[in-house]
């Protein structure tokens, strides 16, 4: 209950007040003093009453709300958040916003956070360690309630004081505490099974640097070895042009650029089918590289899937736009984004996090199937 | 200069202080009192000194910084922004983050704002008027320094108190004061010129609802009419499947779904080439619809561009991934995003805005060219 005698209810004064319009909202919150004075409460009580946070009696809250309305006072968001101790902001660091798969994840995170009245504060890491560190510092200038980083290249981000950690979606570094990941090895195994089911025996893998490709290849190699086969391998960088080059190399043509892989120790031998024969089943560790492989086949006049089956990874939007429509291993990007956002909310509420692993799924389209 | 005698320099006390660690940062800024007391200045002076805003003598600033370091005090971003009266946040409302063209615009906006120490607060309008209004209300709960909205469906957004207006990128509504637009009509004209230069005479337009398609068609129709020709037209919704359906309809096959256009009054007549002849030049008002048109041609076994030339619009990432690589009218998405961000910065500084119109550009690839 208020300690001082409050002024009469504002309704009777409304006409008089509106003719002498109260100064509109200022960031420093000049108007809050007037509301506090008229309602006979402290400034802190006005803040609590209007933000619906903290203990205020219903009568006091009602009086404050009425006076705030009469005086045309709107609380400053900055001031309100200062009182609540929450910013309702979740930082999000993405390598490249324009990459379709990330767009899906961002959309999911935005949908979940939006339902909780929270917003995304976005920064780009440009797939670069220094830029990622800069993006994190940039975001931390704001009071974040949490943070999510996609494909992080940093083992640990900057020390955070208000919450226990960031959520990592598919980090390059392993073993981080709060992470949402895909079972890449299972995805590679799915791809191998699909090519074997399509009756292919001359197999090839088009991969790239980094943890994800290594895991996809491990699953692929395991299933291929289980069938008593080996495979050829060629390395790209997830771009279409690198897939085109890999395709040309695998088809035995002239290889420009020379971005060929050096096989790491212990990797699979060079393949059991003759060097002058092209593969009849190619698994690319990314849809863009698969697009390049398809183009190399079109250029040779090889029919897909009759002569060569092709399978990609990610199932990004482009997979179904390619010709023929690309069979791909789907990353459930939207559900993974939902999981990351929910994990951020859990940490914010002081609950524990822990790793979440999603299973990839085969999406069969036109680029695999029985040979002619 | 300080009015009270400050405490001795903190360096000598550092060891003692660190053993009795000061309570770490709290949002309410408990630590700032201690810094002010030790440095012999007011809390406001500490704030000004640490935020580099406002007038503080170099000596006082130095003393505050040293005491803040010794006491392990880090200013609360919320409190700092409250003092500065700026949030360094720019709201951004996008129909769909996952659409590649928008990704490019977002990336550009983030790059420009990042260089000015500002961040993007992201919300999605889901291409829907009610959702867009909700997104705006959501963002306005934060103290924004500015706002940008892409493809807005609302004529005017919510009343904003702290800045004069939002920047609109390619709004559906015309005549908004601060806008960044493409000259869509010029883009349509470019497409027509390219098809005519490719020696095509049996032309078709695949469009969609809304202002942008209407403008693109106007430019296309003008050039076609200038060459003494007419064209057939069919409507989609910017999706690939609608382009596929349009392609099948234009090729004279069975049309499923029946999403055909009703020609508006005054539109171009049905075309001068016989009804049983397929068009040899098709302009689609979006790359995804062009992808569908290409697929309909592949299904009929028609060769592109030898038998039918196809041209898209936007030059999104997918354009160069299609088979054959799609000739398209490029929207300079990145430069448009840069312009929108710069316009937001100008408005924030109290300068005037005004509309900016960008010229589209023809990007010639494999889907146009001379017939066989």
UniProtKB/TrEMBL annotation, chains A, B:
<dbReference type="InterPro" id="IPR046335">
    <property type="entry name" value="LacI/GalR-like_sensor"/>
</dbReference>
<protein>
    <submittedName>
        <fullName>LacI family transcriptional regulator</fullName>
    </submittedName>
</protein>
<keyword id="KW-0805">Transcription regulation</keyword>
<feature type="region of interest" description="Disordered">
    <location>
        <begin position="1"/>
        <end position="25"/>
    </location>
</feature>
<keyword id="KW-0804">Transcription</keyword>
<dbReference type="Pfam" id="PF00356">
    <property type="entry name" value="LacI"/>
</dbReference>
<keyword id="KW-0238">DNA-binding</keyword>
<dbReference type="InterPro" id="IPR010982">
    <property type="entry name" value="Lambda_DNA-bd_dom_sf"/>
</dbReference>
<dbReference type="GO" id="GO:0000976">
    <property type="term" value="F:transcription cis-regulatory region binding"/>
</dbReference>
<feature type="domain" description="HTH lacI-type">
    <location>
        <begin position="30"/>
        <end position="84"/>
    </location>
</feature>
<dbReference type="Pfam" id="PF13377">
    <property type="entry name" value="Peripla_BP_3"/>
</dbReference>
<dbReference type="InterPro" id="IPR028082">
    <property type="entry name" value="Peripla_BP_I"/>
</dbReference>
<dbReference type="GO" id="GO:0003700">
    <property type="term" value="F:DNA-binding transcription factor activity"/>
</dbReference>
<dbReference type="InterPro" id="IPR000843">
    <property type="entry name" value="HTH_LacI"/>
</dbReference>
